[in-house]
Amino acid sequence: MSAIDGVFEKLRAERRAAFVPFITAGDPDLEFTAETLRLLDEHGASICEVGIPYSDPIADGPVIQTSYTRALAAGVRLESILATLRGVSPQMTAPCVTMVSYAIVHRVGRERFVESAREAGVAGAIVPDLPVEEADALAGVCRAADISLIQLITPTTPRDRALRIAAASTGFVYYVSVTGITGERTELPPELVDNVGWLREQAGLPVCVGFGISTPEHVRQVAAMADGVIVGSAIVRRMAAASQQPRQQVLDDLARYVDELVAPLAKH
Amino acid sequence: MAGPRTTSTARSLPDEAGRFGEFGGRFVPETLTKALDELAAEYGRARDDDGFHARLDGLFRNFVGRPSPLYHAERLSRHAGGAQIYLKREDLNHTGAHKINNCLGQALLTLRMGKRRVIAETGAGQHGVATATACARFGLDCCVYMGSEDVRRQKLNVFKMQLMGAEVRAVESGSRTLRDAINEAMRDWMASVDTTHYILGSVVGPHPFPLIVRDFQSVIGHETREQCLEQLGRLPDVVVACVGGGSNAAGMFAPLVDDEDVRLIGVEAGGRSSEAGEHAAPLAHGRPGVLHGTFSYVMQDDDGQTSDVHSVSAGLDYPGVGPEHSYWKETGRVEYAECRDDQALDAFDLLARTEGILPALETAHAVSYAVEVARSMSPDQALVICLSGRGDKDAYEIAHLRGQSLD
Q1: Confidence (pLDDT) at B175
Q2: Is the pLDDT score of B10 beyond 60?
Q3: How many CB atoms lie within 10 A of CB B302?
Q4: What is the C-alpha to C-alpha distance for residues A147 and A123, in angstroms, rounded to an integer?
Q5: pLDDT in tens, B340-354
Q6: Residue B306 and residue A55: Cβ atoms within 8 Å?
Q7: What is the model's pLDDT at position B372?
Q8: CB of B202 within 8 A of CB of B314?
Q9: Considering only CA atoms, which of A111, A25, A103 is closest in space to residue A59?
């Protein structure tokens, strides 16, 4: 059982949905990343998703892309990201999962990547460009290290395939709310309720919903249908201000925003 | 021309998972899987459909002007002082390069899938122009992504695309070249996949693109094979093609890989030097890795971040290469060499002055290396260069490099 399973067990008992914020590691630097993670943990994050910057992120919209570009331009490396997580994760209640391109996992080596992630206290990995057909080898390594390999299902995924993906996934299933890239949207698609409802009945794993979620109203809607709510671009956009504004001010603003998002997650 | 579409070997690769040996496959976000599965299935049906081939052959003949000639370059041969050099004149195709072969094939697939909108990426602009052309021919909406650095280098092609009704979107992210244009086209496709087909322009990207593009370009190799048998009474000794993503080379080589006596040589962009970032030659200097949905040789750092590359030619300015080329490199069936920017520019001048042909700067890389190889051969031997495109589009850039202005 990974730390992720423990989180959902506890939330189930409390009848609460998980709040899963996403941040880019190293934007603008890793010290700020560590501070942000501590803040998110204190303000109610259930799991923190840490984006490992990648040069060619085809599933990401402009906010996360430019954030990755800034972090890479500032010289962030995988090793230093994991060193930061090793330092900060013991101070947090919420476990961290990494969002990482398979280009990086392959280059570093599956075993080495998983082993160094485990040493850094990472509880799970999301590899958005590794389809289920190619995931067996990495899944095996993750299982041995007790790291969840969280797989994605999208509105374009046929239902028989969705079941295969859910069966191969561990920790939770990441349901992508929209056909498209990451980024804030004004409205969530109407068919989301049915799709997530079906998946939750069938999956045998918690289902968290991400892409496009940015307002307390979105969080309320998603929390009513899913086991967790993932918020990425809206947080990354606020953190991006840290390269121009005083950091304490950015963190204070972020804390207020997170409090607003978390408020609708009270017991339901 | 009649005859098999691909050789027996090429027919058996890639496998069901899109693998050429260990290379290829599909490393894409889940959102795209369904569209790639549908494309593979539709292509499978089209491939077995005589009507589809008849329609494509008709377009090749009467719209593109195929078969393209195989031309004996006598003065160039004399200059090299070795083998007889033949040019497979893809530059004489409508739109000026081999790219139209693939675009027409994929436009027909778009129609079969009932999609009305097409997106494409372009580097030098040749694939963009060919896509805009095919879309105008079939009344499809067309949007072409192009790095803003390439928009600057290739403004004539940008204007041509616009004249044919395509929208050209300049991409400002990353290195603002071909690689970033592919990223942006993929992102568009992530959101538009239900109504839009992505006409990828080279033998790169996730399965089934490397297969589809190779097959549509294989008309080059099939014609070359027949023309050699007609004109020479035998197959050539050596065949040379330039390799960026590698579509003209794949189309030329695939029908010849089973002819073991034919030496096949792909020429990558050696850029300014072999220093990292100064060239675009992943087969020579890269390692196997993942980029743009496929597993192939790529220029990456130790963290898996894609490296910046350089070539004087926008069409070769790409950090990856088609997975089948990686396979041919690993199996030793094809040799891969490099040609530097300055050597390519010299070859451009050489072909212009000896034969009255302005080659594309991409193609000039193949010409340069081929002349070296021909020099080491005997006059009774034959070498074919895939003259993949014409150089009109490069006139501005060449003038710019010489400090001249054409405005």
Answers
A1: 83
A2: no
A3: 11
A4: 5
A5: 999 999 999 999 999
A6: yes
A7: 98
A8: no
A9: A103
Residue B405 has pLDDT above 90, yes or no: no
Interchain pair A154, B31: CB under 8 A: yes
pLDDT at A173 over 90: yes
Tokens of B111: 């129609």
B24 dihedral zone (left: phi>0; alpha: psi -120 to 50; beta)? left
Q: Which residue of A has its CA nearest to B182?
A: A58
Provide the 10 A C-beta neighbour count for residue B81. Answer: 12
Q: Are B291 and A72 inside 8 Å of each other by CB?
A: no
Please tell me which of the candidates A54, A107, A181 has its beta carbon nearest to residue B302.
A107
Average pLDDT over residues B380-389: 98
The structure tokens listed for B60 are 């090749």
Active site residue B388: yes
For B227-279, the pLDDT digits (tens) are: 999 999 999 999 999 999 999 999 999 999 999 999 999 999 999 999 999 99
Which residues of B fall below an 8 Å CB-CB distance to A? Answer: 17, 25-35, 173-174, 179, 183, 186-187, 190-191, 193-194, 289-293, 295, 300, 302-306
Q: How far apart are the first and last CA of chain B?
A: 43
Looking at residue A76, its amino acid is V
Q: What is the pairing mode between strands A122-126 and A96-99?
A: parallel
Kindly tell me if the per-residue pLDDT of B28 is higher than 90.
Answer: yes
Taking the model in full, what pTM does it have? 0.96
Q: How far is A116 from chain B (nearest CA, A)?
A: 13
Residues B64 and A168: beta-carbon distance below 8 Å: no
Q: Exactly one of B42, B121, B338, B355 is catalytic; which is it?
A: B121
Backbone phi and psi for residue A115, each to the nearest 5 degrees, phi listed first: -65, -45
Is B99 annotated as catalytic? yes
Residue B246 · residue B33 · CB < 8 Å: no
Chain B closest-CA separation from residue A133 CA (Å): 9
Distance of CA A244 to CAs A27, A28, A50, A240, B296, Å? 12, 10, 22, 8, 40
Question: Is residue A207 a contact partner of residue A169, using CB atoms and an 8 Å limit?
Answer: no
Which value does ipTM take for this structure?
A: 0.96
Residues of A in Cβ contact (< 8 Å) with B291: 56, 103
Instruction: Say if residue A124 is exposed, middle or buried (CB neighbours under 10 Å; 0-12, 13-18, 19+).
Output: buried
The amino acid at residue B79 is H
Nearest to A134 among B27, B32, B304 (CB): B27
**Cα(B198)–Cα(B125) distance, rounded to whole angstroms?**
16
Q: Which residues of A touch B302 (CB under 8 A)?
A: 107-108
Name chain A contacts of B191, Cβ cutoff 8 Å.
Answer: 178-181
- Pick from B33, B187, B193: CB nearest A131: B33
